[in-house]
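Data availability (excerpt). The following record was deposited with the supplementary files.
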Amino acid sequence: MLLAKGTSKELIESNLQIIKGDIRDASTIKPALMLNGRIVNIIISGLGSTPSLTAKVDWNICRDGVPNVLDAVASLNPSNPPFLAVISTTGISKGPRDVPLAFVPFYYIALAYPHEDKRLMEEAVLRAASKPQSERALISGYTIIRPSFLIDWKEGTELRVGTEEKPVLGYTISRESVGRWIYEDVIAEGGSKWSKKAVTLTY
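Predicted structure:
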């Protein structure tokens, strides 16, 4: 995929490390959190499930997976806790409606199971971020990223950004656009720009 987008093989090999593991097993997650003998400073979770008519779907992958990542962080006992960014979804906000009216039946009926999974994942992130001062913090901060319905092609030219309090409404967003935004606005900023925010992304 990266080669097809013009990224050189040398750049990929020098910057990308693939570690085989299981998100359900915290002990196999730990190696993916380490770089040069230290825990990484930012963790990005893109966990999610896709509805299927032919394969068994794990509707608990987010609610189980992110707590397992946090358990792995706790077991490493870092002196400088990492920042955590998770990819969630629109349609589960406790604030103003963040999906167009035409999408409401589709979101609340067809996507009820994966959205419940994302909602419980978000709650796990918020619990980790609200630990009392008497306990060691697991994360230094967090950003919850709520993209519109994800597509594999780019159909818009302008990516719009909102928050839970002031969401932007839209129908779709490409996975590539979400990934680029995460790199530019979360990773490159060290997490500080949107810390402790739920951010909506759409065209």
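Summary of structural features: The helical segments are 9-15, 26-29, 61-76, 104-110, 112-129, 175-187.
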